[in-house]
Fold:
Amino acid sequence: MDALVIDPVLARACGAALAVILIVGAWQKLRDLAVFEASVELYRLLPETLVPLFARLFPVLEAMAGVALLFDASRSLGLALGLLVLGAATLGVAMNVSRGHTEIDCGCGGAEGHTRLSWALVARNLVLLGLLVAGAQFGSERALVWIDYLSVAGGTLMLLTLYAAANQLIANHPHLAQMRSGS
Structure:
């Protein structure tokens, strides 16, 4: 059975978008490590003694995944590290949501403010995992021409815009639900 072969423009746009998302996410966590460590602790999935180590290691691996996705020679490493960090984050969110522990900040970082844990975050991360797999592909053997690079840039910007919009909708949802209920 042949592997799914995608167009190299799509693969590169997905890879570049995921690289930006991972690198910026890592930077935001490292920028305010105390806040990220507190979020990790609130997940209540690790022994207290491992929380500081995890809070320092996770964003480093996240940044390494993002950087590795940018280069052909390290794309498979980027895929492995990206699957590790996105998979761990998704599993952590899903475990907490399933036990009703949704009032904490996701620890994702970002300008969208405090984002509570929800199934929407799990769905967002599953989409990111799919884009990560697509972005780690080399694509078909088709040679890229100048217009392809413009398409990669445009596709990357479009994916990042969709990501930002999804994050904002997820962050706003609890507030909108509260306004609808009149509380």
